[in-house]
Amino acid sequence: MTRWPLPEPMRAALDEAAQAAAEGEVPIGAVVVKDGKVIASTHNQPRVMCDPTAHAEVLAIRAAAATLGQERLEGCDLWVSLEPCAMCAGAIVHARIARVYYAASDPKGGAVEHGGRIFDQPTCLHRPEVYSGMGEAEAAEMLRTFFRERR
């Protein structure tokens, strides 16, 4: 079986996730890309920032908005190592992210293909294109290892 290299933004998101794990945070990383260029790259930081909203996706969206000097991220792609939760999916909607790429599914906390399926709701103001599975094995193993070491 031939294994294709991951797209650069997903590789960056997984590297950010590894950095989160090294800092004792749940290993989730996110990258925002505009016109083929990474404009924001970060990872989970709720513990270090004492902020329950400091998920990788929210931090990446905030950084990208600051970089662009606007609240709407139309034409931007979000690459993240884990399926976004309901809070992050809501932020994606409000930011008007064009495409979301995530590595691993999250049956417990995800809200894209699991749980609330935020983008499928009739009240959803914006529906990004969604692509999943690239880098799934690596992201899932990183999460399993992180939680196994803490139990």
Molecular structure report:
With 151 residues, this protein is an alpha/beta fold. It contains five helices and five strands, in the order H-E-E-H-H-E-H-E-E-H. Strands 2-1-3-4-5 form a five-stranded mixed sheet. Strand 3, helix 4 and strand 4 form a beta-alpha-beta unit. Helix 1 packs parallel to helix 5 and helix 3 runs parallel beside helix 4. The chain is globular and about 40 Å long. The model has no long low-confidence stretch (mean pLDDT 96).
Chain-wise SSE layout:
Elements lengths: L7 H15 L6 E6 L2 E7 L2 H4 L6 H13 L7 E7 L3 H10 L3 E6 L24 E4 L3 H13 L3
Parallel strand pairs: 3-4, 4-5
Antiparallel strand pairs: 1-2, 1-3
Cα-based radius of gyration, to the nearest Å: 14 Å
Number of DSSP-assigned strands: 5
Strand order of the largest sheet: 2-1-3-4-5
Oligomer: single chain
What general form does the structure show? globular
Defining traits:
151 residues; alpha/beta; 5 helices; 36% helix
Give a quick precis of the structure.
The chain is α/β, with parallel strands linked by helices. It has helices at 8-22, 46-49, 56-68, 86-95, 136-148; strands at 29-34, 37-43, 76-82, 99-104, 129-132.
